[in-house]
Write a structure and sequence with these properties.
With 414 residues, the protein is an alpha/beta fold. 33% of the residues lie in helices and 10% in strands. Strand 1 and strand 2 form a beta hairpin.
């Protein structure tokens, strides 16, 4: 019995030992298998590897003597490329440089592009034409205008004011631009207003426009006297702009020194003296400032006639900026025939210059007004003035176009 118990104990321990031997074998074999597999890949690398197709295996040549396969260049039609810039023509003095490796399209073994590929290649549209500014020609020079004469000035409350000299001389004659009065050709005058407000526009106009063009300097220009001095040196006639109450006032505001219908006569006279004292040496005034032409003030007859008479008594002319208005009744001057820059487009300015020529041929003279020396205005005036003599007309300063006032028998002669 003791033998049987011992045998059972031995059999139990033997079975348990066999079990642990099997467990150890399984663990050792699993570790060796995981070691062969290597470390686990991150999920991103596994996904990238799964999405990348394996490259095709190269086909072995049929025999050792078989020719290598020919590589076909990519078709242009499938992936159209933008057109290349045209190469500069080579000269004999500078040989063309040889690249280290020619591009695929110029390799000797590359196939030339087919007609279909050339037809499918996109062609860049032609750029729109540029509006190149007209080159400034050499216009005939004019003699400089005389410096302000103290005999034609008197002291006012805001500064020197024009006056008629003791010998009867006036600013109209003393500061007139050069012109041959015996010239019988149709005369065309051009006035460019609001000079001195924009420095860039003023400089461009002084540099490019012919001296026969008349400049109207704004009374609000910060350096009006300096601008007037430069224009006199070039032989250019000048006017002073008059801010008069326009249509649409007060929405259209001509400034704090304007002559208004709601102001008293002494107030308007004080503003007129301030305007006329801005700088010396001009031939007269024009009723325009900032594109406003004083329609409402001109409709108040008595005030408007008093303004004209005041200018005449100081030896100044007056230009009415309203197209085709009646000529000034009590001052030397005239009215404007055509507004050139309403609207200020190239085509419209050219059309209105043609209209101005037609008026000059029919009446003997015509006067045009541009509200400002904008680039398009200056450019079109330069291009137009180049050929005016070939069209048998002459550009004239405004003093060559004025008329005697009809309502007074004692109008002063120049």
């Amino acid at each position: 019995m003791a033998k049987g118990l011992a045998y059972r104990i031995f059999a139990g321990w033997r079975g348990l030992g066999v079990f642990w031997v099997l467990v150890l074998l399984l663990l050792g074999g699993g570790g060796l298998w995981l070691d062969r597999l290597g470390p686990a890949e991150p999920q991103e690398r596994l996904a990238e590897a799964a999405s990348t197709p394996a490259p095709p295996a190269p086909e072995p040549p049929a025999s050792a003597s078989a020719a290598p396969p020919v590589t076909t260049p990519p078709q242009v039609a499938e992936t159209p490329a933008p057109p290349a810039a045209a190469p500069e023509p080579a000269t004999a003095a500078a040989p063309a440089a040889t690249p280290a490796e020619p591009p695929p399209a110029t390799r000797p073994d590359a196939a030339p592009p087919t007609a279909e590929a050339s037809a499918l290649t996109p062609v860049a549209p032609a750029p729109p034409p540029l509006d190149v500014p007209v080159a400034t020609p050499e216009f005939p020079t004019a003699r400089p205008i005389a410096a302000p004469d103290a005999a034609l000035l008197e002291q006012g409350r805001f500064g020197p004011l024009p006056r008629v000299g003791n010998d009867g001389r006036t600013s109209i004659r003393a500061y007139a631009g050069q012109f041959e009065r015996q010239d019988a050709r149709p005369r065309i005058g051009i006035i460019v207003a609001d000079i001195g407000i924009s420095n860039a526009q003023t400089e461009d106009a002084i540099r490019r426009l012919p001296p026969a063009v008349t400049f109207a300097i704004s009374p609000y220009a910060p350096r009006a006297a300096q601008v007037a001095e430069r224009l006199r040196a070039k032989g250019v006639e000048t006017l002073i702009g008059l801010p008069l109450e326009p249509a649409g006032y007060p929405l259209n505001d001509p400034g704090n020194r304007a002559l208004l219908t709601g102001r008293s006569a002494p107030e308007n006279m004080a503003n007129l003296e301030w305007i006329l004292s801005r700088f010396p040496g001009y031939v007269g005034a024009i009723g325009v400032v900032g594109g406003m032409r004083g329609e409402r003030f001109a409709a108040m007859e008595q005030s408007y006639l008093a303004l004209q008479e005041s200018l005449r008594n100081r030896g100044l002319l007056y230009v009415d900026a309203r197209p085709n208005a009646a000529a000034p009744a009590r001052a030397w001057g005239r009215s404007v025939d055509v507004i050139l820059d309403e609207p200020a487009t190239r085509a419209e300015i050219e059309r209105r210059l043609g209209e101005l020529e037609a008026i000059a041929k029919a009446r003997g003279s015509a006067l045009g007004l541009a509200h400002a020396a904008t680039p398009v205005v200056v450019d079109r005036l330069v291009a137009w003035a180049v050929g005016i003599e070939e069209r048998r007309m002459v550009l004239a300063p405004v003093t060559a176009l004025i008329r005697r006032p009809p309502e007074t028998s004692e109008a002063r002669t120049q």
